[in-house]
Amino acid sequence: MSPSDPPPPAPPRHVAALGGGLIGRSWTALFLAAGHTVALYDPDPATRARVEETVESAWPVLTTLGLTRTSTPASGLTICDDPRAAVDGAEFVQESIPERVGLKHELYATVEPVLPASAIIASSASGLTLTELQAGWRDPARLVLGHPFNPPHLIPLVEVMGNDRTAPGVVDAARAFYESCGKVTIEVRREVPGHVANRLQAALWREAIHLVAEGVASVDDVDTAVASGPGLRWAVMGPTLLFHLGGDDGGLATFCERYADSFNRWWDDLGAPHLDPATAKRLVDGLGAGTDDIARLAAVRDARLAAVIAATHGDQEPPATT
């Protein structure tokens, strides 16, 4: 699939988005772009204006990436102040309310009695586990983890997870739905805090903080080292496949043989800082000039991400090796 091609068409569905915060609004833009109708629940009276602003802002890049199937962004949008009205008739529900387990359980108890029996509900939760979420349901058979990366309308990845309490086929159906909207999915096979991608970025950030704390490099230089170095490669391939290429004709086996001692030495020397107030202040103080303009930085990020995604959006399967 080329960057200009839309994802495979799927029949229009009615989708419920529970939560109109940053993540919920971004999901809403993506679902509308995919041609679905969306009922968004959020009790905040300012929700409609904020959602419409997000959709309008996201639409040009979604169109550039070939992810829009309609020319009228907000025509399928309904705003609800009652979650039961939002899930009425929904085939797919994306829950993105704040990450407080009690608040989520309260919402689940409200919508479960009126949720269509065939509906799939996915939580965007990043800090809570599926087991913790399931505790808020009488029957969690159709609940999955559907964790995006911010902003969900732009970053392709969605981590999907079920477990032994999830009905057969629900994980596959959730992945198929996301992929029909242009997403790239992975399956989390065992429950761990932070799932997969968050743990990977947490590991990198931990060492970034350690390098700053030890005076090895500034905050700005560490960020530059990532963005202008390995970060560029990671946008194209994952670390193991890249190191496979680093072994030349011998591939990963040669790479491991050649660099095992180096990596073991580096791993033994990695730091283990904690994000305490003093560390947070050091990082904040180390940010470069102009970083206080969050809206401008977000626009720069999104423009650069769109260019990278457009270049890497196609089939990422590596060519067959001999």
From TrEMBL:
Pathway stated in the Swiss-Prot or TrEMBL entry: Lipid metabolism; butanoate metabolism
* The keyword Transmembrane helix is annotated on this UniProt entry: no
Print the keywords alphabetically. Answer: Oxidoreductase
Which intervals hold domain 3-hydroxyacyl-CoA dehydrogenase NAD binding?
14-190
Which Gene Ontology BP terms does the record give? fatty acid metabolic process
GO molecular function terms here? NAD+ binding; oxidoreductase activity, acting on the CH-OH group of donors, NAD or NADP as acceptor
Q: Where is the 3-hydroxyacyl-CoA dehydrogenase C-terminal domain?
A: 194-265
Q: Which InterPro entries match?
A: 3-OHacyl-CoA_DH_NAD-bd (IPR006176), 3HC_DH_C (IPR006108), 6-PGluconate_DH-like_C_sf (IPR008927), 6PGD_dom2 (IPR013328), NAD(P)-bd_dom_sf (IPR036291)
SUPFAM superfamilies reported for this sequence: 6-phosphogluconate dehydrogenase C-terminal domain-like, NAD(P)-binding Rossmann-fold domains
Q: Which family does it belong to?
A: Belongs to the 3-hydroxyacyl-CoA dehydrogenase family.
Its protein name is: 3-hydroxyacyl-CoA dehydrogenase
- The source organism is Nostocoides japonicum T1-X7
